[in-house]
Amino acid sequence: MQAILTFNLKDFPRETVKSYGLDIVNPDPWRSGVVKQHPAEVLEVLAQLLHSSRNPPLLRPDCCTSLERLGLPTSAAHLRTRWAAED
């Protein structure tokens, strides 16, 4: 099934969207699933992004805090767990 990835549920009524063969997916569980299924790839991309941030430099905790502010607390928690396992 195809899906719309959005926090904006009010503009995409589930029944209307289903009539088009689509589903509505919240970004946080979806992104968390990507982190769980492809941790090495996700961590590598994030490492490159963190390394390239210069002004101001972005650290791992800052990245997780930003994700939480964006409404992705589960994703941030998974990343914290993965990074803690590396240290």
Automatic annotation (TrEMBL):
Annotated ranges, domain VapC50 C-terminal: 37-80
InterPro entries according to UniProt: VapC50_C
Superkingdom of source: Bacteria
Protein name: VapC50 C-terminal domain-containing protein
Source organism of the structure: Deinococcus antarcticus
